[in-house]
């Protein structure tokens, strides 16, 4: 009745189209061409700048200076920019920290958010509108930097990793999206489970969550990306530079060139250009996408689950 | 369920089974409000489940938001040993900070720019992720789907500095396009520094950077459309486009409505970092938006009372907007953020 | 407000922030409320300044260092220059015995770049040399302002906090007065002689370190000669046979000749700062520097004809199409000018004098033809220019008010080491680290090792510095060029009425002229008309400019000028 997996049969080439269901008509050549063209253009508009970034990150100072900045046509390939990033051991240490904070933070945020979203998903339940308003208001009213800092400090969270997780653990936007999807789940399923004596936690765990794998994957991704790319809290709440997560280290590596007058002790001489370092940082920022994208896409397969009850 | 009519949406497909659902209150029909005690017994677990999130928000959002009382002060956090104690010692100035904001013509200029950008992005940005998601969803080859999705997500992870640098490299006055034009005897381009088209430039950059990332939620919505709905529609003789119109789009409608309502509530926020970086390029006349205005006039000068006042004004307007948008969503049969 | 984005603006333009006018240096530093009746209490008004006799009582005695003699002594407000090769064996000792008493000190400081591990060879060696266990809290330089604001509002302030002048915005000056210790008892008058290297710090830098009527800061001295140099590609000038221009008309003519957009070459970037210099417009780096007495009348820089003329001429450059299009993006340009200058996309730009050396060093191995040099600032009509002096100190270290005497003594011991002059062992250690580990010397030129490039950054140099020094053992001819440029320009440099003072304007005027820099940029790029600029100036007068004029007049009457 639920969760019918419609795995397409393995076809010889993975680029080939899986067989269509009988009822689906074959698209016309114009349709295929149009779709292909639109998709190709969109991807090209992204890949071309990406090409520039990658090539620049692999270029020597001479090539960059000859191009007057970003490089489009590679002349020489050098990895000095990446060597610069990975030398000194800061990046590897920071990457471990970032992975840890991202994993712990995402798990915590997801737990809190899924519970909250489910708790708000039944219309007409007691007090849910008050809670919703309470949540909503935080999206539009923000506290100043100083009160927030003083709070975190008086809770004793400065120089702890909790300061990177707790203040930003709850995203109301994510909760609302989760809740929207939870509410789309057939009420009959839930009601019948309730009649069978299942409690709310059990319903959430056994019915709602399995039926919401796609959106759970998306929100997990949102939280993970959020934790991974956050840096301001770390720069505010951490004093110990050995605790800094990857983003901060990366930003600071880029900023080496930006030191004010008289403090520019890190002038790049020789092959290495500051621009290449900047671009290398950008390329490395794309790595998580490469890692996470397949994970999320697994849950996007068409017709992977059905939530409706047939009447 | 009869297949004689193609269902409009899943939510509605369910409610059609229970015809007497009162208008504006889709979903579970509520016959009579049960007593408070009954509801408490029934719903206390649900409330308990919201507790962790609520507690975190109360602690880390609401508590520091109390600090916004400095909007009515000439607040000096350094006047005493501790910034909180300083609130007690800072002079109260009534609504002076608010008067200063409203009396400033630059503020109203910033509001106008913000709204122009918001509407432009609503028109030109918002539909694109939906269309892209439909496009991706209609691709059946798994590899093409996977690769194109991965590519479309990438620009979201570029920093704004880089996006602007790339745009400048391509479209700037000394960019590739300009030099190409010059080689053929034309003048160079001015689009990166032209105040009159700045709003379009900003929108184009936003589309490039974030439209691909924006498809994710829609793809999740599409993934949960049951294939039997398509099959049923096809059996009824609905062609490709009619199936999209009657099955796919309705499945997206609740998500679209939710995101639209939230976006309207956020109308006064448009690309802070992106605009701050390009403010000098076209001047504040075209580029000052509410957030950058507050940044220059309140935050940078540590005029905390002023910044807090601006934040309060913005928050009140935003709440008003989101409630209004939610109302509109209700009228259109969507539930938006919360149900009536 | 989104805090993440908060740091976005300054990021690409830190260097220019130092030199740029109103916006960056919007507010000014603190001073003793001599004008107002209520004395030095923390809660009272903190407006005003300390100068003249009052200041003399606070200032440390000056005892010139005798350990090292510079190759080019300071003249006309220049730095001292060293052009000789580095002789490791001949390094002098300026701190014969450790003054540190082995205490623990925590220092918060801005940091540009990626900080090294908190326990590294450089920090260990320095702490050993000083005799104090210093822990560095190195904070991201580009978000330092927010961090500083928050930390000072808390009751947990580190022992020492480093504050650059460009972070003295808004209420930070008043925070400095209420949160940091008076160092007078340890430094004023002859007391400083206990710390000989601090005694050799020039008096005008100390004068700038008086906040709220007390000597609170340990300064980093800088030359008072303008730091903005019109830098140009000397090699291309020679190849094309261009003459260095000596007037505004010559500059424009040369710029037109040199520009060939089709070949992707423009003459220059935004030359507004050079224009201000050529027309003799007062400094916009700090608000008090924009005021001076002319014929018994207190005037502000924006009220002068020169100001408008300088803008008009800059506008001509833009209109003539000789400015590189990237410069139109303004300060926040997302593109790095370095590679474009190296490629020769533009030939002249106005920037801080430190880039004279850094551009040279960057290109030296890869591009042997490349030669950058600084051109003398020309008077707009071809005569001598009128330049205005900048402030003689720009970064301070402050000690927490709650610190014990032992901590203060330890901090001063550390400062006495970091303020050691060029040519001493202490200077080499502070700036280059440990020989063999952090740098190697070949043919009298020290070169940092990989570890040196990681460990030896910022930190100790932020504490206190010797008199402004220019020494580039790798490019001695650049050091010579820089100091000589400063001395030639120094001869044309005047001090405005409030030069050298630490002044706090009444806070109600804090926002008054912060829009002018944007106005200037709008005008020179053709987005605003002269009428609008003039209107903004008259609005400025009526909104508080005239009141501020009276305030400054009174300040001068009661304190006299520092520049005497």
Walk me through this protein's architecture:
The complex is a heterotrimer of chains A (311), B (340) and C (564). With 311 residues, chain A is mostly helical. Chain A has helices at 29-57, 61-67, 80-86, 90-119, 128-140, 145-154, 162-165, 172-183, 187-195, 200-211, 213-229, 232-237, 246-255, 274-285, 287-297. In chain A, helix 1 crosses helix 14 (274-285), helix 4 packs across helix 11 (213-229) and helix 11 packs antiparallel against helix 15. The longest helix of chain A has 30 residues, at 90-119. The model of chain A is unreliable at 1-12 and 303-311 (pLDDT under 50). Chain B has a domain at 92-160 and 199-331: MetI-like (MetI-like fold, Orthogonal Bundle). Chain B has helices at residues 10-15, 36-65, 83-89, 96-102, 105-124, 127-138, 142-153, 160-171, 176-183, 198-223, 227-235, 240-265, 272-282, 284-287, 290-299, 304-331. In chain B, helix 15 (290-299) runs antiparallel to helix 16. With 564 residues, chain C is α/β, with parallel strands linked by helices. Chain C folds into 2 domains: 50-67 and 95-225 and 392-464, D-Maltodextrin-Binding Protein, domain 2 (3-Layer(aba) Sandwich), CATH 3.40.190.10; 228-388 and 503-559, Periplasmic binding protein-like II (D-Maltodextrin-Binding Protein, domain 2). Chain C contains 21 helices and 19 strands. Chain C has helices at residues 3-6, 14-19, 52-58, 121-130, 144-153, 172-179, 184-187, 196-199, 203-207, 234-240, 248-258, 272-278, 305-319, 337-343, 354-363, 405-418, 425-432, 450-455, 476-490, 516-524, 530-559; strands at residues 80-82, 104-111, 133-140, 160-164, 210-211, 214-215, 217-221, 228-233, 266-268, 291-294, 297-300, 346-352, 372-374, 387-388, 393-399, 439-442, 445-448, 469-471, 493-494. A 5-stranded mixed sheet of chain C has the order 3-2-4-15-7. The two termini of chain C are 46 Å apart. In chain C, 61% of the residues are buried. At the A-B interface, helix 1, helix 4, helix 5, helix 6 and helix 8 of A face helix 1, helix 2, helix 6, helix 7 and helix 8 of B.
């Amino acid at each position: 009745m639920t969760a019918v997996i419609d795995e397409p049969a393995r076809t010889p080439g993975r680029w080939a189209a899986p067989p269509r269901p009988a009822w689906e008509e074959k698209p016309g050549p114009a349709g295929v061409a149009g779709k292909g063209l639109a998709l190709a253009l969109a991807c090209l508009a992204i890949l071309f700048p990406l090409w520039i970034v990658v090539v620049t990150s692999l270029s020597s100072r001479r090539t960059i200076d000859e191009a007057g900045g970003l490089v489009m046509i590679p002349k020489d390939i050098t990895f000095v920019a990446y060597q610069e990033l990975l030398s000194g051991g800061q990046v590897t240490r920071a990457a471990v920290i970032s992975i840890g904070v991202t994993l712990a933070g995402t798990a915590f945020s997801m737990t809190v958010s899924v519970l909250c979203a489910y708790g708000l998903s039944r219309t007409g339940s007691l007090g849910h509108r008050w809670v919703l308003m309470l949540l909503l208001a935080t999206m539009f009213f923000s506290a100043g930097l100083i009160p927030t800092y003083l709070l975190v400090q008086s809770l004793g969270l400065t120089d702890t990793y909790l300061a990177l997780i707790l203040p930003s653990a709850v995203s109301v936007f994510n909760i609302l999206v989760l809740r929207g999807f939870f509410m789309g789940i057939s009420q009959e399923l839930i009601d019948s489970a309730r009649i069978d004596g299942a409690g709310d936690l059990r319903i959430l765990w056994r019915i709602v969550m399995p039926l919401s794998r796609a959106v759970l994957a998306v929100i997990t991704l949102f939280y993970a990306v959020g934790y991974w790319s956050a840096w301001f809290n770390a720069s505010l709440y951490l004093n110990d530079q050995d605790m800094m997560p990857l983003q901060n280290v990366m930003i600071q590596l880029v900023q080496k060139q930006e030191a004010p007058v008289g403090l520019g002790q890190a002038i790049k001489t020789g092959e290495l250009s500051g621009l290449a370092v900047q671009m290398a940082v950008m390329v490395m920022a794309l790595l998580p996408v490469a890692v996470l994208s397949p994970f999320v896409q697994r849950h996007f397969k068409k017709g992977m689950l059905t939530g409706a009850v047939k009447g | 369920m009869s297949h004689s009519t193609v269902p409009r949406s899943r939510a509605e497909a369910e409610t059609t089974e229970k015809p007497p659902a009162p208008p504006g209150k889709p979903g579970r029909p509520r016959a009579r409000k049960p007593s408070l005690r009954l509801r408490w017994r029934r719903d206390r677990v649900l409330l308990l489940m919201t507790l962790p999130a609520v507690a975190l928000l109360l602690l880390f959002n609401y508590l520091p938001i109390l600090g916004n009382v400095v909007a009515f002060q000439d607040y000096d956090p350094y006047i005493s040993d501790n910034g909180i104690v300083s609130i007690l010692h800072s002079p109260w100035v009534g609504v002076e900070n608010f008067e200063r904001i409203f009396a400033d013509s630059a503020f109203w200029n910033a509001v106008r720019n913000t709204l122009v950008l918001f509407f432009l992005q609503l028109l030109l940005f918002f539909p694109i992720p939906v269309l892209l998601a439909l496009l991706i969803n209609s691709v059946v080859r798994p590899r093409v789907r996977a690769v194109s999705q991965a590519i479309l997500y990438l620009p979201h992870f570029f920093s704004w500095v880089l996006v602007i640098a790339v745009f400048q490299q391509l479209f700037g006055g000394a960019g590739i396009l300009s030099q190409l034009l010059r080689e053929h005897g034309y003048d160079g381009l001015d689009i990166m520094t032209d105040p009159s088209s700045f709003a379009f430039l900003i929108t184009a950059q936003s589309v490039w950077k974030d439209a691909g990332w924006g498809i994710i939620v829609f793809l999740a919505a599409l993934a949960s459309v049951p294939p039997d709905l398509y099959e049923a529609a096809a059996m009824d003789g609905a062609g490709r486009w009619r199936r999209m119109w009657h099955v796919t789009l309705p499945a997206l409608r609740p998500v679209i409505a939710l995101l639209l309502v939230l976006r309207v509530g956020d109308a006064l926020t448009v690309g802070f970092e992106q605009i701050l970086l390009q403010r000098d390029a076209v001047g504040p006349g075209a580029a000052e938006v509410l957030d950058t205005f507050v940044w220059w006039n309140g935050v940078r000068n540590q005029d905390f009372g002023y910044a807090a006042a601006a934040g309060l004004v913005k928050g009140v307007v935003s709440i008003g907007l989101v409630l209004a948008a939610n109302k509109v969503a209700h009228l259109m049969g969507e539930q938006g953020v919360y149900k009536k | 407000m989104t805090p993440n984005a908060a740091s976005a603006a300054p990021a690409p333009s830190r260097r220019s922030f130092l030199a740029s006018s109103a916006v960056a240096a919007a507010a000014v530093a603190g001073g003793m409320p001599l004008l107002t009746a209520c004395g030095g209490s923390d809660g009272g008004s903190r407006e005003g300044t300390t100068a003249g006799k009052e200041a003399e009582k606070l200032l440390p005695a000056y005892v010139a260092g005798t350990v090292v003699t510079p190759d080019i002594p300071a003249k006309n407000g220049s730095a001292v220059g060293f052009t000789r090769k580095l002789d490791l064996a001949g390094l002098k000792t300026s701190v014969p015995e450790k003054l540190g008493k082995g205490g623990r000190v925590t220092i918060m400081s801005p940091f540009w770049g990626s900080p090294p591990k908190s326990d590294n060879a450089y920090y260990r060696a320095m702490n050993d040399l000083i005799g104090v266990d210093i822990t560095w809290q190195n904070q991201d330089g580009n978000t330092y302002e927010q961090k500083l604001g928050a930390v000072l509002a808390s009751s947990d302030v580190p022992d020492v906090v480093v504050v650059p002048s460009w972070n003295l915005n808004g209420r930070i000056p008043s925070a400095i007065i209420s949160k940091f210790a008076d160092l007078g008892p340890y430094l004023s008058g002859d007391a400083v002689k206990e710390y000989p290297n601090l005694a050799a710090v020039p008096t005008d830098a100390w004068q700038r370190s008086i906040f709220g009527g007390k000597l609170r800061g340990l300064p980093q001295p800088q030359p008072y000669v303008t730091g903005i140099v019109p830098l140009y590609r000397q090699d291309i000038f020679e190849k094309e046979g261009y003459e260095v221009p000596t007037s505004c008309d010559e500059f424009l003519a040369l710029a037109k000749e040199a520009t060939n957009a089709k070949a992707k070459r423009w003459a220059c970037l935004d030359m507004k700062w050079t224009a201000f210099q050529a027309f003799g417009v007062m400094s916009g780096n700090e608000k008090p520097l924009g005021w001076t007495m002319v014929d018994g009348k207190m005037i502000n820089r924006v009220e002068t004809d020169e100001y408008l003329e300088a803008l008009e001429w800059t506008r001509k450059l833009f209109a003539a199409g000789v400015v590189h299009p990237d410069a139109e993006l303004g300060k926040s340009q997302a593109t790095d000018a370095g590679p474009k200058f190296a490629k020769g996309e533009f030939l002249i730009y106005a920037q801080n004098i430190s880039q004279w050396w850094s551009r040279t060093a960057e290109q030296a191995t890869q591009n042997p033809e490349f030669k950058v040099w600084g051109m003398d600032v020309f008077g707009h009509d071809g005569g001598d220019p009128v330049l205005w002096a900048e402030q003689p100190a720009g970064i301070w270290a402050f000690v927490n008010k709650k610190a014990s005497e032992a901590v203060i003594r330890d901090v001063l011991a550390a400062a006495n080491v970091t303020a050691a002059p060029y040519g001493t062992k202490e200077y080499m250690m502070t700036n280059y680290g440990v020989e063999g580990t952090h740098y190697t010397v070949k043919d009298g030129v020290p070169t940092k090792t990989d570890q040196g490039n990681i460990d030896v950054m910022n930190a100790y140099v932020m504490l206190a510095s010797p008199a402004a020094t220019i020494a580039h053992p790798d490019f001695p001819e650049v050091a010579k060029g820089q100091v000589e440029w400063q001395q030639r320009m120094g001869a044309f440099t005047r001090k405005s009425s409030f030069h050298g003072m630490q002044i706090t304007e009444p806070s109600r005027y804090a926002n008054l002229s912060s829009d002018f820099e944007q106005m200037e940029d709008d005008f020179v790029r053709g987005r605003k008309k002269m009428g609008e600029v003039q209107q903004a100036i008259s609005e400025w007068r009526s909104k508080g400019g005239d009141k501020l004029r009276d305030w400054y007049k009174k300040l001068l009457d009661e304190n006299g000028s520092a520049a005497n």
